[in-house]
Amino acid sequence: MVNVKVEFLGGLDVIFGKQRTHKVSVSGNGDVTVGNLIDYIVDNMIKNPRDKEVFIENDTIRPGILTLINDTDWELEGEKEYVLEDGDIVSFTSTLHGG
């Protein structure tokens, strides 16, 4: 079990009860990865099934959502394979704004 802080920014908070910051406990078989966290978010935190496509596409984070692990781009950290540690901060920021 790993305890992390998850942030939804840039308007993404709308699909998470308008709450930007969440404390989340995630479990997995062995190491707990960002992939496990994403599965947890999709399965447990997105209430409206239609909102899942706003966040996820082809089993990964949708293009246009900047994903940071402890303020570092997740692409530099191994994306979904990154092994989470207690206290990590994972933030998702939409770069797509309506207008």
UniProtKB/TrEMBL annotation:
<comment type="pathway">
    <text>tRNA modification; 5-methoxycarbonylmethyl-2-thiouridine-tRNA biosynthesis.</text>
</comment>
<protein>
    <recommendedName>
        <fullName>Ubiquitin-related modifier 1</fullName>
    </recommendedName>
</protein>
<comment type="function">
    <text>Acts as a sulfur carrier required for 2-thiolation of mcm(5)S(2)U at tRNA wobble positions of cytosolic tRNA(Lys), tRNA(Glu) and tRNA(Gln). Serves as sulfur donor in tRNA 2-thiolation reaction by being thiocarboxylated (-COSH) at its C-terminus by the MOCS3 homolog UBA4. The sulfur is then transferred to tRNA to form 2-thiolation of mcm(5)S(2)U. Prior mcm(5) tRNA modification by the elongator complex is required for 2-thiolation. Also acts as a ubiquitin-like protein (UBL) that is covalently conjugated via an isopeptide bond to lysine residues of target proteins such as AHP1.</text>
</comment>
<dbReference type="GO" id="GO:0002098">
    <property type="term" value="P:tRNA wobble uridine modification"/>
</dbReference>
<dbReference type="InterPro" id="IPR015221">
    <property type="entry name" value="Urm1"/>
</dbReference>
<comment type="similarity">
    <text>Belongs to the URM1 family.</text>
</comment>
<dbReference type="GO" id="GO:0005829">
    <property type="term" value="C:cytosol"/>
</dbReference>
<keyword id="KW-0833">Ubl conjugation pathway</keyword>
<dbReference type="InterPro" id="IPR016155">
    <property type="entry name" value="Mopterin_synth/thiamin_S_b"/>
</dbReference>
<dbReference type="InterPro" id="IPR012675">
    <property type="entry name" value="Beta-grasp_dom_sf"/>
</dbReference>
<dbReference type="Pfam" id="PF09138">
    <property type="entry name" value="Urm1"/>
</dbReference>
<dbReference type="GO" id="GO:0034227">
    <property type="term" value="P:tRNA thio-modification"/>
</dbReference>
<feature type="modified residue" description="1-thioglycine">
    <location>
        <position position="99"/>
    </location>
</feature>
<dbReference type="GO" id="GO:0032447">
    <property type="term" value="P:protein urmylation"/>
</dbReference>
<feature type="cross-link" description="Glycyl lysine isopeptide (Gly-Lys) (interchain with K-? in acceptor proteins)">
    <location>
        <position position="99"/>
    </location>
</feature>
<keyword id="KW-1017">Isopeptide bond</keyword>
<keyword id="KW-0963">Cytoplasm</keyword>
<keyword id="KW-0819">tRNA processing</keyword>
